[in-house]
Amino acid sequence: MCLAFDGLTCLVLIATAGLIASSAVPAASDTNLASCNSAAEASPEQQIATCTVLIQSGSYHGQDLARAYFSRAVGYLRKQETDNAIEDLNAGLALDPSNATALFNRAVGYESKDDLDRALKDYDAAIKLKPDYLKALTNRSAIYFEKNQFDQAIEDETHVIALNPADPVVLVMRGRSYAGKGDFALAVADFDQAVRLNELHFAPPSGSVLYYRGLALLALGEDDRAIGDFNRAVVLAPDNPLTFEGLGFAFLQQGQFDQALSDFEQALRLQPTLAGALYGRGLAKRKKGEGSSGDADISAATAIKPDVAEELARYGLL
């Protein structure tokens, strides 16, 4: 669904804890129950097999049966068998419709299938049941971002930051949302705070925060700082094409068309269908007098991502 540093825009987290209470089965079945319930200690195959025995035994009803379905769904999610997971979550939620963890996991399943509307509905329901559900708030904000609903994304991200102010990842997410709505100074402030949090733990900033801060700095006209961030990001993530795309746009803005073209081409060697880099290469070619070739690149980029020009314009790159 996305290309990003550190899985930043692909936040799909499976909630596994507490799906089956230990009192749900007789003592003789404790080992099977533990395997069914424990994603950490059992392989997905063991978890699915053990939960299947419990489900088919006929000994469980109501919420106890629901929890067995929920745990088997986690096993399926761990194996990326999303349709089976959703089927089990549907069965469990029919028996226990107020289980916030199950609603969250079904949202994860829908999100992995790019069914964002259904995912959003389930995240909404989970958050209604648990207003401070950090994982659900974080994932919902990522969907709002994908839908360009930046104010809603910022609201969720601000909620998460208030509960967990030391999380640099959500600060980067909120920074991206601010940038999405054109509030680049606020975006840079969030990215700067994320860098400071990394430094407090004697860790280098992530490639993601440097990349996204670089884009925001470009939008603010601070080309040299942006190039510094992109170069540091290249060192941290040399195989991520987005860093080279960012450098390409920075040099394009500075009128260094040969260097811009070189960076766009490196981005496209790493990811041939990266629409932003393809569009940027087209712009660089046009600036060098290669109009027809540049037009072809821009047309190809638009075919891959119809809103690519709108997205680039949002960052002041066009």
Q: Summed up, what is this model?
A:
The chain has helices spanning 30-37, 44-56, 62-78, 82-95, 100-112, 116-129, 134-146, 150-163, 168-180, 184-200, 207-219, 223-236, 241-253, 257-270, 275-287, 291-304, 308-314.
Draw up the topology in text:
Elements: H1 30-37, H2 44-56, H3 62-78, H4 82-95, H5 100-112, H6 116-129, H7 134-146, H8 150-163, H9 168-180, H10 184-200, H11 207-219, H12 223-236, H13 241-253, H14 257-270, H15 275-287, H16 291-304, H17 308-314
Helix content: over 70%
Give, in order, the helices and strands: HHHHHHHHHHHHHHHHH
| Name given to the CATH homologous superfamily of the domain at 1-147 | Tetratricopeptide repeat domain
How many extended strands? 0
Task: Give the uncertain stretches in residue-range form.
Answer: 1-29
By CATH, the architecture of the domain at 1-147 is named Alpha Horseshoe
Strand portion = under 5%
Averaged pLDDT? 87
Main beta sheet strand tally, sense and closure:
none
Q: What is the third-level CATH name, the topology of the domain at 1-147?
A: Serine Threonine Protein Phosphatase 5, Tetratricopeptide repeat
For this structure, what is the CATH class of the domain at 1-147? Answer: Mainly Alpha
The 3D shape can be described as elongated
Characterization of the model:
By secondary structure, this protein is an all-alpha fold. The model is unreliable at 1-29 (pLDDT under 50). Helix 2 (44-56) runs antiparallel to helix 3 (62-78) and helix 5 packs antiparallel against helix 6. The radius of gyration is 23 Å and the shape is elongated. It contains 17 helices and no strands. It has a domain at 1-147: Alpha Horseshoe (Serine Threonine Protein Phosphatase 5, Tetratricopeptide repeat).
